[in-house]
């Protein structure tokens, strides 16, 4: 594994760490390439049940796209970079496994967009989220205008993007950007606890739920409900469904096998 993105697999968790602390983990082309390689491994892995994304160091999750690199880009290169980054973030958002990001500091611009590509976000009082882009003469280019609007609504998103204001942990939580706000030392343990709670459940059911929530949110309600019904019927064909219901009847803990 390359050095700007680390992937460690332990106890069913895949720890994905953006590892470029000297630039506050800014997303250079190299980081994006390495992130793609890590996603290759996660997609191929049978051992990773939940992915936990974080940034190396004390200060930042990810402080955005690499401004020094962007400064040198022609419009064509910017287009290529943005397309590549968007494809990468889409891959992350479409992983079958649930994903949790731990916002251990600044999550700005592309860093916030990276976090928005995960399912759940955890932060603390010093977490700082924001979209500084308009102050640089650009707009959020890695789907922030869209993913943030879908998460917290268009009006609050407009305020955040138009003002480029940085929002601290408590406000980010109140806005609905963070799922959980915890003490600094609890950041990783809280993510692991959440991941552990997810892992107790039938993996195929969790994966299907993720897929239906994501795909369904893009569809008219009637079609989305139909999709849910089909997914549910399919789960009735799994061994884990039989095990889950039998365990309930027999008053014991279910043992799931992802089958
Ligand atoms: N890019 C490159 N280097 C960065 C960086 C970034 N985004 N953020 C920080 N660094 C580097 C700093 O340059 C510094 O490096 P040296 O100068 O020491 O070599 C080092 O990290 C430490 O940063 P600071 O010295 O600035 O640390 P402070 O504690 O004083 O300040 C800060 C922390 C997070 C407030 C500050 O670093 C900061 O404002 N950083 C920039 C935040 C930001 O504006 N992020 C970019 C958002 S824009 C598109 C592609 C992408 C996008 C849009 C379009 N296309 C291709 C079309 C999206 C863009 C964004 O993400």
TrEMBL record:
Pfam family, one: ECH_1
Keywords: Lyase
Keyword Lyase applies: yes
PROSITE patterns xrefs: ENOYL_COA_HYDRATASE
Keyword Lyase recorded: yes
Superkingdom, natural source: Bacteria
GO molecular function: hydro-lyase activity; isomerase activity
UniProt GO BP: fatty acid beta-oxidation
PANTHER family for the chain: ENOYL-COA HYDRATASE, MITOCHONDRIAL (PTHR11941:SF54), ENOYL-COA HYDRATASE-RELATED (PTHR11941)
Sequence similarity: Belongs to the enoyl-CoA hydratase/isomerase family.
Protein name: Enoyl-CoA hydratase/isomerase family protein
């Amino acid at each position: 594994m390359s050095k700007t993105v680390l992937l460690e697999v332990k106890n069913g968790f895949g720890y994905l760490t953006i590892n470029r602390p000297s630039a506050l983990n800014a997303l250079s082309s190299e980081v994006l390439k390495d992130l793609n390689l890590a996603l290759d491994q996660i997609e191929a892995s049978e051992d990773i049940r939940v992915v936990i994304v974080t940034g190396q160091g004390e200060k930042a999750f990810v402080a955005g796209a690499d401004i020094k690199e962007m400064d040198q880009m022609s419009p064509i290169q910017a287009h290529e970079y943005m397309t590549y980054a968007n494809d990468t973030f889409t891959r992350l958002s479409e992983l079958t496994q649930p994903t949790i990001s731990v916002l251990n500091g600044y999550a700005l611009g592309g860093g916030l967009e990276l976090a928005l590509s995960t399912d759940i976000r955890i932060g603390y009082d010093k977490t700082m989220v924001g979209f500084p882009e308009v102050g640089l003469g650009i707009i959020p280019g890695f789907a922030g205008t869209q993913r943030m609007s879908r998460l917290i609504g268009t009006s609050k998103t407009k305020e955040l993007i138009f003002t480029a204001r940085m929002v601290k942990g408590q406000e980010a939580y109140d806005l609905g950007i963070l799922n959980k706000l915890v003490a600094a030392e609890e950041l990783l343990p809280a993510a692991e606890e959440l991941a552990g709670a997810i892992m107790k459940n039938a993996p195929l059911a969790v994966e299907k739920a993720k897929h239906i929530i994501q795909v369904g949110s893009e569809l008219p309600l009637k079609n989305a409900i139909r999709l849910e019904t089909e997914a549910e019927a399919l789960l009735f064909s799994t061994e884990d469904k039989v095990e889950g219901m039998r365990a309930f009847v027999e008053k014991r803990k279910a043992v799931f096998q992802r089958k």
